[in-house]
Design brief:
There is one protein chain. The protein has about 170 residues and is α+β, with helices and mostly antiparallel strands. It has one domain (about 5-140): Gcn5-related N-acetyltransferase (GNAT) (Aminopeptidase), CATH 3.40.630.30. The chain is built from 4 helices and 7 strands. The chain has a 5-stranded mixed β-sheet. Strands 6-7 form a two-stranded antiparallel sheet. The longest helix is centred in the N-terminal third of the chain and has 19 residues, at about 15-30. It is globular, with a radius of gyration of 17 Å. The structure holds coenzyme A. Coenzyme A binds near residues 84, 97 and 132. Coenzyme A binds near residues 86, 97, 126 and 132.
Length: about 170
């Protein structure tokens, strides 16, 4: 592959909507919940592009074809990677690392102290990659309390500060 990363262009919309669908599918698979993301998850890209903290979107391309997508959010002292996704069938070949390196360089331009990324706790593989790539400090932790019966089969096996948690 001769992969490069370039800024998102209007003509990338459909390919990137599909990548958003792929990202949603990953979450549906992780939680065994086909409803995640609603009827038209690709449309979330359109909403993302309108976010006030939107700071850029970049695509990984090879031979004119798009293989991955990464975005950056920026507000005040905060920068966050959102989203990051590589096409199924092309994962674990270094494309995600390419995208992450690129967005880290873009985030550095804001001269803030930290760049964050917020994988769901069950996304063990993605988390392993992010920790390997330097995201090895924990900021806020989002704890959830179920307010109504949930379809999600929460798993045991995570502890933090000695507390048993489900993820
Ligand atoms: C997470 C994701 C973006 C990573 O992209 P990728 O192209 O698969 O990752 P890479 O091939 O660049 O991997 C980079 C590093 O992580 C390691 N890695 C890759 N897959 C891994 C896995 N399943 N478990 C542990 N480490 C892994 C690689 O060894 C590599 O390390 P190295 O450079 O030292 O060899 C991609 O897998 C993806 O799109 N997943 C589905 C969507 C998703 O979960 N996005 C994250 C939401 S926050």
């Amino acid at each position: 592959m001769s992969l490069s990363v370039r800024a998102y262009e209007d003509g990338d919309l459909e390919a990137c909507r599909q990548l958003w669908v792929d990202l949603t599918q990953r979450h549906r698979d992780l939680y065994d919940s086909p409803d995640i993301g609603g009827d038209d998850p690709g449309k979330q890209l359109d909403e993302h592009l309108r976010r006030p903290d939107f700071a850029g979107l970049w695509v990984a391309v090879d031979g004119g074809e798009i293989f991955g997508l990464v975005g950056l959010l920026h507000s005040g002292e905060e920068t966050e990677v959102e989203p990051i996704v590589v096409r199924p069938g092309h994962r674990s070949r270094g494309i995600g690392k390419h995208l992450l390196d690129h967005v880290c360089a873009e985030a550095a331009k804001y001269e803030v102290g930290y760049l964050s990324i917020r994988p769901v706790a069950r996304n063990v593989e993605a988390m392993a990659m992010f920790v390997n790539e330097g995201f090895d400090r924990v900021g806020h932790v989002q704890l959830l309390k179920a307010l109504k019966p949930t379809q999600i089969p929460w798993r045991d096996g995570m502890t933090m500060h000695g507390k048993k948690l489900r993820f």
